[in-house]
Amino acid sequence: MKKTVLVATLSLSLLVSSCATIISGSKQKVNFRSNPAAASIFIDEVEVGKTPFEIKLERKKEHHVMIKLDGYQTYETNLTKKFNAWYIGNIVFGGLIGIIIDPITGAIYNLSPDEVNAEMSKGTAFKVNKSDVYIAVALNIDPNWKKVGQLEKLN
Predict the structure, then answer these.
(1) What are the residues whose beta carbons fall under 8 Å from the beta carbon of 83, sequence distance 6 or more?
(2) Mean pLDDT highest for which of 4-8, 46-50, 71-75?
(3) What is the distance between the alpha carbons of residues 155 and 144, in angstroms, rounded to a whole number?
(4) Is the pLDDT assigned to residue 117 strictly greater than 60?
(5) DSSP for 38-87, written as a single string
(6) Using CA atoms, how far apart are residues 110 and 87, in angstroms rounded to an integer?
(7) How far apart are CA 52 and CA 115, in angstroms?
(8) Cα 6 to the center of its chain, rounded Å
(9) Phi and psi dihedrals of 123, rounded to 5?
(10) Checking DSSP bridges between strand 27-35 and strand 53-58, what pairing results, if any?
């Protein structure tokens, strides 16, 4: 009976010794969407695909994301590391191996946000024709600006 309890206890401690790595893994799925679709996605300055798109990214580092589409302003954001609560399982169950392994694999983190929805707004666009360069600019209203007056039409 004592051997059975001992074997069960050791087996359980080995199984949960690196909780975050076992449960979450060292990579995380991140979804990318945009309106309009078919925008190019750059992660850490490398083009990885076009929206809509899903990719597994390493949890142990933060990622810079740019979503580009001709005729639209570039959408930029960062995927940041947040603490993964599964790591606490190592402390609760005495997983000394997991306390070391989870930080090395990056499983101690979750990337945030795990879904990026880019609303592409009309912006600066350019087109090159042999020797000519055409530039179109659309201004966006800054909601922090204070309105000080209004033009009125004269009859």
Answers:
(1) 108, 109, 110
(2) 46-50
(3) 32
(4) yes
(5) --EEEETTEEEEESSEEEEEETTS-EEEEEE-TTBPPEEEEEEEEE-GGG
(6) 11
(7) 11
(8) 43
(9) -150, -150
(10) antiparallel
